[in-house]
Amino acid sequence: MRILVVCGAGASSTFVAQRLRRAASDAGLDWDTAAGTEQTISAAFADLVLVGPHLADRVDAIRAASHALVAVLPDDVFADRDGIRTLAVARMALSSSKNDSPSTAKGTS
């Protein structure tokens, strides 16, 4: 599973991606996480793009630029010091996409 965490400049998404990677590893998941910006989405290969809450108003453009499932992170994601809540958000987004039809799989937010 490849997950891209996106924020404005890439700094805060780096912390979220590192915490998510650690939480996924602790849960026995072989997930690759990376940080990026909105400009890196179209070139990135990811199964899931997690968007920082401050970019929620850009989610439609992000979905259009990505071939991956896209989900917006909650407002308090940066306080998730151990990555467990972020892991839960990612799992929920991935789980809901399996229950959606192919036409709505990218619509998670």
What does this entry look like structurally?
The structure is a single chain. This protein has 109 residues and is an alpha/beta fold. It has 3 helices and 4 strands; from the N terminus they run E-H-E-E-H-E-H. The chain has a 4-stranded parallel β-sheet, sandwiched between helices. The longest helix has 16 residues, at 11-26. 38% of the residues are buried. Mean pLDDT is 88; it is low at 101-109.
For the biggest sheet, the summary is:
4 strands, parallel
How many beta-strand elements? 4
Strand content: 15-25%
Strand neighbour order, sheet with most strands: 2-1-3-4
Shape: globular
Residue runs with pLDDT of under 50 for 5 or more positions: 101-109
Q: Which class of secondary structure composition applies to the elements?
A: alpha/beta
Q: Which key features would you list for this structure?
A:
109 residues; alpha/beta; four-stranded parallel β-sheet; disordered C terminus
